[in-house]
Amino acid sequence: MARGKLRIYLGAAPGVGKTYAMLAEAHRRIERGTDCVVAFVEHHGRPRTEVMLHGLEQVPRRRLEYRGAVFGEMDVDAVLRRAPAVALVDELAHTNVPGSRNAKRWQDVAELLAAGIDVISTVNIQHLESLGDVVESITGVRQRETVPDEVVRRADQIELVDMSPQALRRRMAHGNIYQPDKVDAALSNYFRPGNLTALRELALLWVADRVDEYLNEYRSEHRVSRIWGSRERIVVGLTGGPEGRTLIRRAARLAEKGAGGEVLAVYISRSDGLTSASPKELAVQRTLVEDLGGTFHHVVGDDIPAALLDFARGVNATQIVLGSSRRKAWQYVFGPGVGATVARDSGPDLDVHIVTHEEVAKGRGLPVARGGRLGRARILWGWAVGLAGPAVLAVLLNAVDLGLANDMLLFLAVTVAAALLGGLLPALASAAFGSLLLNYFYTPPLHRLTIADPKNIVAIAIFFGVGMAVASVVDLAARRTHQAARLRAESEILSFLAGNVLRGETGLEELLERVRETFAMESAALLERESDVAPWTCAGRAGLGPPLERPEDADVDMPVGDHMALALTGRVLPAADRRVLAAFAAQAAVVLDRRRLQEEADQARALAEGNRIRTALLAAVSHDLRTPLAGIKAAVSSLRSDDVAWSEEDQAELLEGIEEGADRLDHLVGNLLDMSRLQTGTVTPLIREIDVDEVVPMALGGVPEGSVDLEVPETLPMVAVDPGLLERSVANLVENAVKYSPRGRRVLVSASAIADRVEVRVVDRGPGVPDEAKDRIFEPFQRYGDAPRGAGVGLGLAVARGFAEAMGGTLNAEDTPGGGLTMVLSLRAAGSHAESPGTGTDITEPERQAL
């Protein structure tokens, strides 16, 4: 069955019209004859949205009871049985009520897609998992309901539902989003113009990045090499010289002038070595460009202008920034230079900026990478000099008689020049051609290819031999230089690579991206399989090339052991490059192994922590739970004994002991269960608005009467909490405070409002806790000081802090002035608390309650 397609309407904030646009799309599809149903849509009491539901088939919701309340969730099984062509599922980031088929709604959507059902859904930008910290820094609200970015990125279509902050605030003022009594508070808090503008920018930039990914995939699939200036991308060409910092800063300023500008710094090293750059300077420049928000790339290429232009066109750049040449005037006789060549060959779609700097015309401050293979232009010049030089020289010497010895020296000079420029073959051709011209024009008998004087034969032979020797020496020097430089390049690349890997600075994807850039490939992938007959799977990949099912499908296949291979697509590499590629492949295997070992280590740590918890639980059961059981058993045995006639007072005392022991057991077991829930991550708070004075008095039922003074004003703002979790937290705090308070000294429980938070303080006059132990007392199974074994298993404070953090609050310990300990439970007021699981809406608590 073909997988269904996912379409997402993305908005910057509640109320921009995502659900309305989704319902409008459903009506359009139904008019075209598409089988479309509403799997789950929440109109939030908005009249216009509710009207759009008319005429659409709605799958009945599944009713679930949780903590005394009934909630409606999407019935995944019913939708699958109905099997429509298209299903509308609102609020992709929603957390389902406990007892649902899946924990998250996006997991429900994944099941529908797997069943071949197309899904249309909605999500706000603040619910993307990667943007949680950014959104909290902007709005002060931590989003508790999130959806992984990859789920949204994999959508077949993402449509931005945009609205200006002013228009959205007008909609809010007209009552089209919230109820009238919530409008004023919402406009002055969450829906402030600054908040909405920042969220809108996040949404626009995120969608722009996604569109950019689509564009790169399209250009790669269709082999588009021409630059499309969809956004400003500025490539900075670095040489490793000190002027690079100036170029990077200049490029950053250019990028700031255009929205969404991007800076890509690239250093192109010759395949014959990294001799023209300082690794230390390159590292400084890399740090600088990354600090300015750009990226650094390292590419290998013998023809630097061509490699730079290929890189720029490959990343769809619009501008190139280069520095003015450091060469002196006389050095231009060897060519126009990189800057002039890039400007000449850039074409109409690339702007080239030549930036002046302090190193202009001061000469190369770094060693020049000569050697290597003789370039094409140099070889052509060698052939031109080797063939045309003797002919031109013969014409000139026909007009002047210098004698045979001088003529030979001049022809030998031309041969040496050809050897220096073009190497062995042009020099041999020059020597042979020059010998023929010397014999024909200048050796008696003239104008004949015979030699009368044997001495002239020796002279011409020596001339030819010297020419061959010089050519051989030049060619050998070039080859040796190339080999030495290449080995140096390989050693520096491998040293840099090994250093990064050993320091743990390179992940598998980053390493594969470096492989791709180093060898100028389209994609790189690490494939593996479990056995010789098992199918290949991709452990990691980089680049935009087509996915590979087998290493044999790639242009380059580098085996790593028996069941792993590094596969590259783009071009066939020469044999000389495979040695470095083999090192990259081995390092990739090491990185993969290290990542898996890290995952196993994390699992081992989790198991060790679980074992520690279980060991502590067993210790608690062995003594702390046995003690009240022993007391209860002794009291019951005494009451049942026929040997003693108990008075009414004695019976009452024994029964009271039984009741106290049972209460103590109930409390211990409750804390053990709560700690188990916290350790396994199954605590899902059901956030509701409630007054503190409704919850705190209920938490005092387990302490002796008259041991607590309560000061909770009725004028405090409401808090957004789970009432059950708050009650348990306060109860544990009060019980702990009463346990350590001196006889006759009451515990004070007070509450006050500070800014956007409500603080509940539990104050005792006990011995207190030193500063170094204040955090340790909140760890499980920790009891401070000389607390007897019967004082509990040390879970009360750990459970209290765990529940507080689950509700978005904090719990800390402070010294009580005059002696003692104060527990400060800080809770978010209803106007500033993000939505918690189980609320069943696409908006946060502060949004719904006007923050």
From TrEMBL:
Keyword field contains Transcription: no
Annotated source species: Streptomyces bangladeshensis
Q: Which SUPFAM superfamilies match?
A: Adenine nucleotide alpha hydrolases-like, ATPase domain of HSP90 chaperone/DNA topoisomerase II/histidine kinase, Homodimeric domain of signal transducing histidine kinase
Cellular localization per UniProt: Cell membrane; Membrane
Q: What is this protein called?
A: histidine kinase
The molecular function GO annotations come to:
kinase activity
Which reaction is recorded as catalysed by this protein?
A: ATP + protein L-histidine = ADP + protein N-phospho-L-histidine
- The answer to keyword Ribonucleoprotein applying to this record is no
Q: Which residues form the Histidine kinase domain?
A: 620-831
- EC no.? 2.7.13.3
Q: Which SMART domains match?
A: HATPase_c, HisKA
Positions of the UniProt region annotated as Disordered: 830-851
Q: In terms of one coarse class, where is the protein primarily found?
A: membrane
Alphabetically list the UniProt keywords: ATP-binding, Kinase, Membrane, Nucleotide-binding, Phosphoprotein, Transferase, Transmembrane, Transmembrane helix, Two-component regulatory system
The record lists the lineage as: Bacteria, Bacillati, Actinomycetota, Actinomycetes, Kitasatosporales
Tell me the InterPro entries matching this sequence: HATPase_C_sf (IPR036890), HATPase_dom (IPR003594), His_kinase_dom (IPR005467), HisK_dim/P_dom (IPR003661), HisK_dim/P_sf (IPR036097), Histidine_kinase_KdpD (IPR052023), KdpD_sf (IPR038318), KdpD_TM (IPR025201)
